[in-house]
Amino acid sequence: MTEKEAATSRFHRFDLTKVWPHKDYPLIDMGVMELNRHPDNYTRGV
Question: What is the distance of C-alpha 10 from the center of its chain?
């Protein structure tokens, strides 16, 4: 979403209760998160 699109959007771009229309903003694969061990300190590691 560009700044111009954000200004005219029907909803606030940081509203976590909304799902963006996938036809306008298709999902993008960002990578893979691999959990290969238990963290030593859960609070710090996760």
Answer: 18
Per-residue pLDDT tens over the stretch 1-46: 888 988 888 888 888 898 888 898 898 898 988 888 887 877 876 6
Residues 46/39, Cβ–Cβ less than 8 Å: yes
Give yes or no for a contact between 30 and 6, defined as CB atoms under 8 angstroms apart. Answer: no
The CA distance from 40 to 31, in Å, is: 24
CA atoms of 5 and 29, how far apart (whole Å): 22
Bin 23: left if φ > 0, else alpha if -120 < ψ < 50, else beta: alpha
